[in-house]
Design a protein that fits this description.
One of its GO terms (molecular function) is formate dehydrogenase (quinone) activity. Helix content is 63%, strand content 6%. Strands 4-1-5 form a three-stranded antiparallel β-sheet. Strands 2-3 form a two-stranded antiparallel sheet. It has a domain of 62 residues. It is mainly alpha-helical. Strand 2 and strand 3 form a beta hairpin. The protein contains 13 helices and five strands.
Length: 256
């Protein structure tokens, strides 16, 4: 006979946020970006260049990782969940414009964010747009610098100028992205495990949390942290989200 104190504690429910494919795309792209930044720093900063040495090896690694940057994203288009998230990132809803204007954009009332933020807030959407544009621009200028023969002096000089200065901007944006990720345990857990606490989602992405719960994108997880059940239902996130109709609104604030 099972005593009351022997009963297993109830399983905790989590929201599914990212599939394994999406997490792999993020991790591989991020790793390639960090390698490019590290090798570029060693190539362009005299102190690091002297300390590390192996300049030709570093140059080869930098070039190959740079040309490989778009590959995970292109391969990721096979995933319906990834394509759906790209659509989310590519569209601004009315609350996104309000999120950018308001200083209390992250305020929480009654356990919920004051704005019905979708799966990605406006800052994350702008960061994604910058990263996509930066990859394309660095790829184009890098190609001219790596294979300079067909190009005129003006093109080569301009490409070097853009490549070098954009590198500094990328370093600043990447540092900010890592800072925000490391100080937000919920967001970090979502990218590492694919699941987030519903309370965290309600505080930071209230609109997405409501849509996810309506579409049953939840999974019970045992108290010991086993996420095997999460992996079994990752494919469910490939379905179109119920959030799309609301977050993809095309009407700007103040229009009827």
């Amino acid at each position: 006979m099972m005593h009351q104190h022997d009963a297993a504690p109830p399983a905790r429910t989590w929201l599914l946020r990212f599939t394994r494919a999406e997490r792999a795309i993020h991790h591989v792209t991020g790793s390639l970006m960090l390698i490019c930044i590290a090798t570029a720093a060693c190539l362009y900063l005299p102190a690091l260049s002297t300390l590390v040495g192996h300049r030709e090896t570093l140059k080869t690694v930098h070039v190959w990782c740079g040309f490989a940057l778009p590959v995970p994203i292109i391969l990721g288009l096979i995933s319906r969940a990834f394509r759906a998230d790209l659509r989310r990132l590519n569209r601004f809803a009315p609350h996104d414009w309000e999120w950018l204007r308001r200083r209390d954009r992250r305020a929480v009332r009654g356990g919920r964010g004051v704005l019905p933020v979708g799966k990605f807030n406006a800052g994350q959407k702008l960061n994604a747009a910058f990263v996509a544009g930066a990859i394309l621009l660095m790829l184009g200028t890098g190609e001219i610098m790596t294979f300079p023969d067909p190009w005129s002096d003006r093109w080569r000089t301009g490409s070097t100028f853009v490549h070098d200065w954009l590198f500094l901007v990328i370093v600043a944006v990447t540092a900010g992205h890592l800072w925000e990720a490391l100080r937000d345990r919920g967001a970090l857990q979502g990218m590492l495990t694919g699941r987030v606490d519903p309370d965290w989602a309600a505080r930071h992405h209230a609109g997405w949390a409501d849509a996810s719960q309506r579409s049953h994108d939840t999974v019970p997880t045992s108290p010991d942290g086993d996420n095997s059940q999460v992996n079994d239902v990752d494919a469910e996130m490939d379905k179109s989200s119920a959030e799309d109709d609301s977050e993809f609104a095309k009407r700007r604030p103040g229009t009827s």
